[in-house]
Amino acid sequence: MTAPNLMIAEMWKDVLEGDGLPTKILPDGDILTWGERVAFKIYVPKGREHVADEILRKL
């Protein structure tokens, strides 16, 4: 899943980890374009994507 910026990605990461789902966030695209306003990918364990989608749907 993709968050529009770093602040949203960190909020989603906190919510997912608060529900026991380990996550990692990385900038979408090249690492050289990293900044607060670029999109970020949120990675969850394989096979648990549906859990993350359900948690975020409840927000």
Can you give keywords for this protein?
globular; about 60 residues; 3 strands; alpha+beta
Written account of the structure:
With 59 residues, the chain is of the alpha+beta class. The protein has one domain (2-57). It contains two helices and three strands. A three-stranded antiparallel β-sheet has the order 1-3-2. It is globular and about 30 Å long. The relative contact order is 0.29. The model has no long low-confidence stretch (mean pLDDT 93).
What is this entry, summarized?
The protein has 59 residues and is of the alpha+beta class. Helix content is 37%, strand content 17%. It has helices at 6-18, 49-57, and strands at residues 2-3, 24-27, 40-43.
How is this fold's topology laid out?
Elements: E1 2-3, H1 6-18, E2 24-27, E3 40-43, H2 49-57
Antiparallel strand pairs: 1-3, 2-3
Label the overall shape. Answer: globular
By DSSP (H or I, 4+ residues per run), the number of helices equals: 2
The mean pLDDT is 93
Supply the number of structural domains. Answer: 1
Percent of sequence in beta strands: 15-25%
The rounded distance between the terminal residues' Cα atoms is 15 Å
Order of helices and strands: EHEEH
Q: Any low-confidence stretches, pLDDT <50, length ≥5?
A: none
Number of strands: 3
- The radius of gyration computed from the alpha-carbon positions, rounded to a whole number of angstroms, is 11 Å
Structure class: alpha+beta
